[in-house]
Amino acid sequence: MTTFYRYLHSSRRVHSQNQKLNADAILKALSKSLLDNYNISTAIEKVKWEGLTDLNEERVDGLEKMLQQIEEFRSAILNNYSIDTLCDDIKVALKLLCDRYNRLDPVKYNLASDVISFGFTTFKEAIQNLAGWLQDGFPEKMASMLLGLAKAASLLNPELHQEMRKPYQHVLRKIFGSVFLINKQCQLDSDTFLSSVKNLTGMLDSIQKGDEADFITFLTTYPDVFKFRGGLKEWLSSVEGKRAALKLLMVTVSPQIRMGLESFFGPEQELDETTRYLQTLWVQLEKLHPTLRPKRVRFSGSASLNFDSALLLAEKLLKLEELEKTIRRANLNCDLTEVNQELLKEVLGELAESSFQKLSQIVPVLVESGYLKQDDSGYGLTPKAISRIGQIALAESFSAFDLSRRDKVSQTEKRLLPTFTEETRKYEYGDTLYLNLPRTLFSALTRSENKGVPVNLMPADFEVFTQESKTQTSTVVLIDMSSSMDDKFRHAKQVVVTLKQLVEWYFPGDSIKVVGFYSLARQIDNSELIRIAPLSAHFYNVPDRIAIRDLRNMEKHGGSDFPGDFTNIQEGLRLSRAILSKDFRNEKHIFLITDGEPTACIKDSFVYLKYPPTSFIFQETLKEVMRCTRNNIRITTFMLSDNSELRDFVKQIEMINSGKAFFSSPQDLNRVIVVDYLRKKVFRF
């Protein structure tokens, strides 16, 4: 008995099939790609390819996973089954005939010429040899052999003649499509079957001539015989898939079996009327709906398949191939509407259909939630989306600190919660009553004559915590935008969005600005924060110095001739100092993030560009460090590379500025900077 592979890739219940995809879950999945310098459209397609996890922790499979499932299903079929048994049911029927007629008394007579050609002189001799052939495989000239035996049998008696023709007609009718054209639940006698096939060929002949009037009449006459679902177009499409499956079998079977089956098509074969009409029908269908020759596949398993079961599996293999092609085309064209959802559900199951529907919701849900906007240039993130990405990054940073549940309070509480020293003092009128309860009770018990309960509290017993005076901080995050930062840049951007959200939620009196430096430097607005990326490498044929005006014009007009891929820490510090000098806050910091020593500086209206760097560029950069120090700006350096030149340079910055320096892997950068920022604040989680 044949066992078929079940086309369901998970036993999980599809209880969320109709649930809407959560916008925050989409944005969380997008944030990594956006920080990796993908544009929003590419990031969306990347999520569709890779899939995502919804907020309820349910996995939404992407197109990549669906293609993997298709390959797994295809491999399961090909590795489990053998197609060498395709004609075993025919061989069994013939063996039974051989066993039956092998017991006949020898009867000598003149056999038909096409049996004599095999070297046999008696019917029994032919039967015995046929039985031997069937042990070895499927004879290449099976059709001729069967017809010859049928002719010989007709000389003995009509009943024997008909029984010998049955296997022959059985094979032909399967090949010409009765196995999939006729509704198996409809029990037909031979005359009705012949009449229905004859009328179907006539109706299709009329359609070929442009007359479709006979189609309705045909449906009325034979409503249950043929597997019509919908109109003629749907039926032709359905039959096309099954004809293609039959062709796939013919190109996949062994050469011996294929030659045996093809022998039934020879012009010398005698066809009964029904089989002739089935053959005509096959030719008509090829004209109306041609099918391409399928690519051969290789079955390598051991489970046996009869003809009908093999045809069913061949059809499923073709459906897998068709679905695979449409998914790849949809991914290439960024258009999920090219995927046939009914076919996807049939082949991969309800969970895959649910995932696909959710993937199709990504853009509409983002637009509806106010995270995505569309204009003439395409899709763009809204300020709300950028803020939400910062919240996601901040949440991930806090999860890295392993905060316990009891340590977490609401955002509103954190904004309003004052910070305290460990000192207490006596309550004064007008103070907010932040009681140190143990000290208050101790004071009351000390004063009272009654040392037990109840405790008689008086206002004079109250002791309150001393509030810490908050310092407001202005910080510039100074990011290296040279090409060497390519694989580290997403972590630098994550630092910025995290700090911005940290300040917005917990330190609304603080300020965070962003400056990017390369051969020059510029301030980066919130709206472009997600989009910024490192510059491309450009070290060849670059002059040692370029006028600032000329370099800025080159940057403005863009193009490959702009030598932007140098490290001008000096200009980054100068611009940061200029921003901080306009700020009223008393604490001023620069977070310098870089993976290399300076290779550019500005002096006397010229930009000096040199790689490897020179002592001149080092000295000009350190002069700017001195200016920052005189302006009470503390510089904290985060090194993303551990080369000796960078370490030596950063040590000089520390000596001049009394700031701090950290060596960090890109992956730890966000955690290290957030921790350092919080250490500068009196803030209790």
Largest sheet: 6 strands, mixed
Strand order of the largest sheet: 9-8-7-11-14-15
Characterize the quaternary organization of these chains.
single chain
Tell me, rounded to a whole number, the average pLDDT.
78
Secondary structure tally: strands: 15
Structure class: alpha/beta
Q: Strand portion, in percent?
A: 5-15%
Report how far the terminal alpha carbons are from each other: 66 Å
Work out the helix count.
Answer: 27
Low-confidence stretches: 1-15, 105-117, 402-416
SSE diagram, text form:
Blueprint (H helix, E strand, L loop, with lengths): L22 H13 L4 H11 E3 L5 E3 L1 H18 L7 H14 L11 H4 L6 H14 L5 H15 L1 H18 L2 H4 L8 H19 L4 H9 L10 H21 L2 H8 L10 H16 L18 H27 L7 H8 L1 H11 L1 H7 L3 E4 L2 E4 L1 H18 L10 H6 L3 E7 L10 H11 L15 E5 L5 E8 L8 H18 L4 E7 L3 E3 L21 E3 H10 L11 H13 L5 E8 L5 E4 L2 E4 L5 H16 L2 E7 L4 H14 L2 E4 L5 H11 L6
Parallel strand pairs: 7-8, 7-11, 11-14, 14-15
Antiparallel strand pairs: 1-2, 3-4, 5-6, 8-9, 10-13, 12-13
Helix pairs in contact: 1-2, 1-19, 3-15, 4-6, 4-8, 6-7, 7-8, 10-11, 10-14, 12-15, 16-17, 19-22, 22-27, 24-25, 25-26
